[in-house]
Design brief:
Structural class: alpha/beta
Order of helices and strands: HHEHEHEHEHEEEEEHHHEEHHEHHEH
Number of strands: 13
Number of helices: 14
Shape: globular
Radius of gyration: 22 Å
Largest sheet: 7 strands, mixed
Distance between the termini: 17 Å
Strand content: 5-15%
Bound molecules: pyridoxal-5'-phosphate
Strand order of the largest sheet: 1-9-8-5-4-2-3
Length: 417
């Protein structure tokens, strides 16, 4: 069996179900009726609408939070959260180096300084020890990312931060229904943020949801998402600075239909992941989410970690060969860790003077360099591969993924020997 990358027959010729095609999404009659209902109502925006408030109530109930605030994206949801915490310009927000750039945008948009804390080599999530070491007297918040659907040690991080008055914002964009040590993610910290973007577990194209038990923070977020305008008073007054991050009724109606499918989507992803773990766990030099953690994970992606010394090949070769077999995967998930993006290393933020990474407003000159987060840098460069894990994979899809991984693993090992 020669590898497809060397001219052999690929394991798989049809595309797998994915968030990029209809076969990997659950968009059907309920969503069509939702859109129709809104169009017929004549009210397409949330002011005076019914769908967006209903989505907020339904999502808050599902997550078990006192409040939910809808917005236009996961990035907007994070921006609401940081804005509600209200850092002073130059205050610091601790973030992980493996995440979507939206996590960092939320801090920069509030003129706060992202400070990176390194990750656990077993999960890719920020560790509590790294958070503790990154705290200074300017730290106002930590944004904890539950990467790929696996829980970060958010309860340990809350235990460190709460006595210091530091807010913990959970970025749950990849982690609907994920279970952390103390319970489901989203309400372990002060504020939880979710995304409805195309690639997430459920989608309305784009959209965001932010949850909190704190009524005062929720009110700040509602104002921030609507130009600081308190609609209930009937006055055209702007109580505070804000954006227009209002979710539309069309988006909310589709999101409500998707929300009704969420638990089945997560259950189906867990079943797919359990089968993948079962079919791959014996491969040398490969580490997966442990079988006994699968039911706490929500598998936005299916991560594989390689030990080069034990398997004899590098992740870039593995990813290229597996993609050629018809299973599209990414070596490293990101091209570079977040802290090494030119927006940060070259300080391309507001204008050209480097604000807010300058002192003042920061209390020290901030710069981002190779070596700041060695575990994350090594993971992206050489140990991590992310594979798809879709709710619509059938038995044959799962069997093809297992066969392709086993074939490439054997082929590259033989070539290295
Ligand atoms: C997708 C994602 C975001 C941003 O969400 P958008 O809706 O794309 O703005 C933020 N954080 C993480 C971890 C994500 O995966």
């Amino acid at each position: 069996m020669s590898l497809a990358i060397a001219g052999g027959e690929p394991v798989r010729s049809e595309p797998l179900p994915s968030w990029e095609n209809a076969g990997g999404r659950r968009i059907g009659e309920a969503e069509q009726q939702a859109v129709q209902r809104v169009l017929e109502s004549g009210t397409l925006w949330r002011v005076g609408g019914t769908e967006t408030p209903a989505l907020e109530r339904e999502f808050a109930r599902l997550i078990g939070a006192g409040n939910a605030v809808a917005s236009t994206s996961g990035t907007a949801a994070l921006h609401l959260a940081v804005a509600a915490v209200a850092p002073e310009p130059g205050d610091e927000i601790i973030v992980p180096p493996i995440t979507d750039f939206g996590t960092v945008i939320a801090a920069l948009a509030c003129n706060a300084v992202p400070v990176f804390a390194d990750v656990d080599p077993l999960t890719g999530c920020m560790t509590a020890e790294a958070v503790r070491a990154a705290i200074t007297d300017r730290t106002r918040a930590v944004i904890v990312v539950h990467l790929f659907g696996g829980a970060a040690p958010v309860d340990d991080i809350v235990a460190i931060c709460r006595p210091l008055g530091i807010a913990v914002i959970e970025d749950c964009a990849q982690a609907y229904r994920t279970v952390a040590t103390g319970g489901e993610v989203g309400t372990r910290g002060t504020i939880g943020c979710f995304s409805l973007q195309q690639s997430k577990h459920i989608t309305a194209g784009d959209g965001g949801l932010t949850v909190t038990d704190d009524d005062r923070l929720a009110e700040r977020m509602r104002l921030f998402a609507d130009k600081g305008w308190p609609r209930s008073t009937g006055e055209r007054t702007h109580l505070s600075f804000g954006m227009n991050y209002r979710m539309t009724e069309l988006t909310a109606a589709v999101a409500r239909a998707q929300l009704g499918k969420l638990d089945q989507v997560v259950a189906d992803r867990r079943a797919v992941a359990a089968a993948l773990v079962d079919g791959l766990a014996d491969l040398d030099g490969l580490r997966l989410v442990p079988a006994d953690r699968v039911d706490r994970h929500s598998f936005w992606l299916f991560p594989l970690w390689f030990d080069r010394a034990a398997c004899g090949f590098d992740t870039a070769s593995f990813a290229a060969a597996l993609t050629a077999e018809g299973v599209p995967v990414s070596a490293g998930y990101l091209n570079r860790p977040v802290h090494l993006n030119p927006a940060l290393t070259e300080r391309r933020i507001h204008g050209s003077n480097g604000f807010p990474l300058t002192s003042p407003p920061a209390s020290r000159q901030i710069s981002y360099r190779v070596g700041d987060c060695p575990v994350a840098e090594a993971m992206i460069a050489g140990t991590l591969v992310t594979a798809p894990c879709n709710e619509n994979f059938d038995d044959r899809d799962v069997a093809d993924v297992i066969a392709a991984v086993r074939k490439v693993h054997a082929g590259l090992r033989a070539a290295a020997a």
